[in-house]
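User: My advisor asked me to double-check a structure prediction for Type-4 uracil-DNA glycosylase before group meeting. I don't want to rely on an old file, so could you generate it fresh from this sequence?
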Amino acid sequence: MSWDERQRRMLAELGIPPWLVPAGPPAAAGAGAEDGGEHLPPDAPDPVPVAASAVADRADPVAAVPRGAPAAAAGAGAPVAAPGRPAAVAPAPLDAAPGPRPGRGGLAALDWPALRAEVAACTACGLCQGRTQTVFGVGHPQAHWMIVGEAPGEQEDRQGEPFVGRSGQLLDSLLQSIGLTRAEAPPQRQVYIANTLKCRPPGNRNPTPEELLQCEPFLVRQIALVQPRLILAMGRFAVQALLRSSEPIGRLRGRVHRYQGVPLVVTYHPAYLLRNPLDKARAWDDLCLAAETAAASDAAAPAN
Ligand code: SF4
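Assistant: Sure, here is a fresh prediction for Type-4 uracil-DNA glycosylase from the sequence you gave:
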């Protein structure tokens, strides 16, 4: 199926009028007044327009070695120019210095079963008291694409799986439109999905900085185990954890960032898109950028 045909199908499936899809490069800077997350505060500030594409590479003391992707060779701050996209020209500002890490030094040695058990038993923050169960993550353990969301909602807390319910269905449709799935498939097609927080905040409130900080080492270890070739960060708190940026999604999307050398694309959380369907067109643009970037990574990486 051609790209144009796939795009037409996806737009029809998501109910997006073709005229809403911007022509040419994505509308990155300052598009939309939103935080793009699942947990949307009513007084989210309007984004301020920023200059064209830039790449951010967050320095992180926790080891996560990319699997031979070109991202690894590019190094910190190296620009990524996706085909047909404006080249990245400068590092994006990171406005929050990394805080002290919780004492989780042992996580770096854990394999998947041990990490899952560690999460299931975790009582490092108060969210453990209200959870039905932890929501660890699902998907291919060596997926080329890793999807990072925010925090479990009611359905996720009940089922123990990220992105279920209506937002999960929308995510599945978005993934399907670019040939990806959460169902069993080779690592090129089956994604790995994880949330930034593993326990549900009560009443779907925003997670606190302390809760995010306590839980982040689990996500860091998941990324290190998966070694994805592309990370798709969905929503404000995923972005805060991975890029150490509190800028609105509208200012961060439309360009390729880096996390530990891995290309990272920012987009809206599906729950936000359900509330703001007109932004599905921008989400589609983000997916196109992610797909182009992942294709470039795959082309340069060893066969898997
Ligand atoms: Fe532990 Fe994370 Fe749950 Fe807090 S949210 S109790 S850090 S697993």
